[in-house]
Automatic annotation (TrEMBL):
Keywords: Cell membrane, Membrane, Transmembrane, Transmembrane helix. It is found in: Cell membrane; Membrane. It is a multi-pass membrane protein. This is Probable membrane transporter protein.
Length: 308
């Protein structure tokens, strides 16, 4: 029972992050499941089965708050489902000894990406208005879906920054559209895992625990996306993922590092992580203050223009 409560809390926290950033539910949840010794394919299958419910509720919540562009959902979600099914069947064919370090490497890469992206740049805001073309979204969906199922997460870390960087869709709609399209990806990946490893290797009580936590958090996250500082949250979550998967790799059969190597590496990650959060906080405060000054100046100019 204690483990189920912990999983529900992880699902709640992961969905709060995912619904606010457009990423990290899968990588956060899968990282925990791997840390407690779950088979890599079963861990990814558990997370994706839970995501069918969480992404449905999250998508509905984002839609109610006006955060969804349905054209983007269709153009990226369908190829994402194809990529997710392919990735699920590929991961199911690997042995546990090979799959565990491979998944840890993918998750570590995604964690480093999230940490660097949000520490250095936050959520970029480019030019808006131009349509997102299918020739851009189709390959992005295929790649994101494949990475998502093989790594237990990755749809958000691949899709969200790429669309944000295009500058053609406002950040809240990028996050809402990625979260909504992940429903298709979750269904396709789940079918792939059920075909590949069967239902007997999946603990459905764990699925239910992650699902309950995520469903509770989904509408809260859809509201928070307008208020929470994503730069700080992204740096914090990225650090957790980097630390946990570095630990998994150093203790794997591939490396099997001694304590004299592992503990200095952990200490270095902690220092970098703390520095990243502190830097993110300072940058967030600086940009917030700058935007406030610019807003005041713009209002003053409008008042002067109206008076003339």
């Amino acid at each position: 029972m204690r483990k189920l409560i912990l999983l529900a809390l992880v699902g709640l926290g992961a969905q709060l992050v995912d619904g606010s950033l457009g990423m990290a539910y899968g990588v956060t949840s899968t990282t925990l499941l791997l840390a407690i010794g779950t088979n890599p394919a079963a861990a990814s299958a558990t997370v994706h089965l839970a995501e069918i419910g969480t992404t449905l509720v999250s998508g509905a919540s984002h839609w109610r708050f006006g955060n969804v562009d349905w054209r983007v959902v269709a153009k990226i979600g369908i190829p994402g489902g194809v990529g997710a099914f392919a990735g699920a069947t590929f991961l199911s064919s690997l042995s546990t000894e090979v799959a565990a370090p491979v998944m840890a490497l993918i998750l570590l890469a995604l964690g480093i990406y999230i940490l660097v992206r949000f520490t250095a740049w936050g959520l970029p805001k480019g030019r808006l208005g131009q349509p997102l073309r299918k020739r851009f979204l189709t390959p992005l969906g295929l790649f994101g879906g494949f990475v998502d199922s093989t790594g237990g997460g990755g749809w958000g870390p691949v899709g969200t920054p790429a669309i944000l960087a295009s500058g053609r869709l406002e950040p809240r709609k990028v996050i809402g559209s990625i979260d909504t399209s992940e429903f298709i990806v979750a269904i396709a990946a789940s079918v792939g895992f059920l075909v590949g490893i069967g239902s007997e290797n999946i603990d459905f009580a764990w699925v239910a625990a992650l699902l309950i936590g995520g469903v509770i958090a989904a509408p809260i996250a859809a509201w928070l996306v307008r208020h929470i500082p994503p730069r700080i949250l992204g740096a914090a979550v990225g650090g957790i993922i980097v630390l946990t998967n570095t630990r998994s790799l150093l203790r794997s059969d591939w490396i099997d590092a001694p304590d004299a190597v592992r503990y200095p590496v952990y200490a270095a990650i902690y220092l970098i992580w703390a520095g990243a959060i502190a830097y993110s906080w300072r940058q967030y405060r600086a940009y917030r203050d700058l935007e406030t000054v610019e807003a005041i100046d713009a209002a003053a100019k409008r008042q002067r223009a109206a008076a003339l």
